[in-house]
Design a protein that fits this description.
The protein has 313 residues and is α+β, with helices and mostly antiparallel strands. The chain has one domain. Helices cover 28% and strands 28% of the residues. The strands form 2 sheets. Strands 1, 2, 3, 4, 5, 6, 9, 10, 11 and 12 form a 10-stranded mixed sheet that branches. The longest helix is centred in the C-terminal third of the chain and has 21 residues. The chain is globular, with a radius of gyration of 22 Å.
Length: 313
């Protein structure tokens, strides 16, 4: 797929076929049993103070905990995927030999004119203010705000590996789905880094069974995530010492693919743009017969799978 311009991306992300499902999905989340786990709910500073506490794990790292259970806070935020730098790890990713822990997977989501997303962005600033007040004046860098075009954006990231001298999290095995070529394994094998529970990100997707009118959530390969998709991001909050100050950031914990419509629209938009460019470049060339190009949607794939199953029964 050719490079996507900001203008093309925003045209898709503001399309009603993308925004309306996001509005419905996000509004449903804050009104049902998972309400307490929605980032948008904490756009009220008093709610932040009433529910959270800050724990300094050591001199270099602090995390946000639930006041009652003392477990780490992980909240959900729904949005449209504007950018994704996700596994699998390939040779094209250049891990700096002496700073592999600075390489991270990340996603950027937006929610054009969606109230729950606006509230989620506001909640991040409230949580930042709460965390920052647990440190000395000036110890935490100012919160960075991100935008794509005229729209607020939320960037969430998680580093691939942990320096071996950090003893805060237990080690775990590297999932093959993110490291099929063993690149992370070799970095960890060097002895300077390790893969810990803090580096684990969960990837899931909704699977629609139209025949039985059922929807399930299953594990997903991170390569299925595309710009334009409707996703739900699970995130925690960290303040980590970088240089002489702490940096506050939302940390990526999980990804849920909820709807693929936007990615399909974006692919169609890019194809139309390429076709227009090609027509302008070769408008003097003779017309030749072209094979018909068929784009398959999720509904097509499910219907094909159903028909194949029927013929083999």
């Amino acid at each position: 797929m050719s490079a996507t311009s900001v203008e093309q991306l925003l045209t898709v992300l503001t399309d009603s076929r993308c925004v309306e499902p996001l509005q419905y999905f996000a509004a449903g989340r804050v009104s049902r049993q998972r309400k307490k786990l929605q980032l948008a709910v904490y756009d009220d500073y008093e709610a932040v103070v009433a529910n959270f506490t800050v724990k300094k794990l050591d001199a270099s790292c602090a995390i946000l905990l639930w006041s009652d259970s003392k477990e780490e806070v992980v909240l959900d935020c729904q949005g449209l995927l504007a950018a994704a730098y996700l596994p699998p790890v390939t040779d094209r990713m250049k891990f700096p030999t002496k700073a592999a822990h600075m390489t991270a997977q990340s996603v950027t989501i937006v929610g054009p004119d969606v109230d729950e997303f606006r509230r989620a962005i506001s909640a991040v600033s409230k949580i930042y203010r709460f965390v920052e007040q647990h440190f000395g004046a000036g110890a935490v860098r100012p919160l960075q705000s991100d935008r794509i075009g005229d729209y607020d954006a939320l960037i969430v990231r998680s580093r691939y590996v942990t320096p071996n001298n950090i003893k805060l999290w237990p080690t775990t095995s590297i999932p093959e789905v993110i490291d099929p070529r063993g690149i992370l394994g070799r970095i960890v094998g060097s002895g300077a880094y390790k893969f810990t529970e803090d580096n684990v990100v969960q990837y899931r997707e909704t699977v629609v069974d139209h025949a039985n009118k059922a929807v399930s959530v299953e594990d997903a390969n991170p390569s299925v995530f595309r710009q334009g998709q409707l996703v739900e991001v699970g995130l925690s909050f960290r303040a980590v010492m970088v240089g002489k100050q702490y940096t506050f950031f939302p940390k990526l914990e999980s990804m849920l693919l909820a709807n693929r419509t936007g990615a399909t629209i974006l692919a169609d938009t890019l194809e139309a743009s390429r076709s227009e460019s090609n027509a302008m470049a070769v408008d003097e060339m003779p017309v030749i017969v072209r094979k018909r190009q068929v784009s398959y949607t999720l509904d097509d794939v499910i219907e094909d799978a159903r028909k194949r199953a029927e013929t083999t029964m």
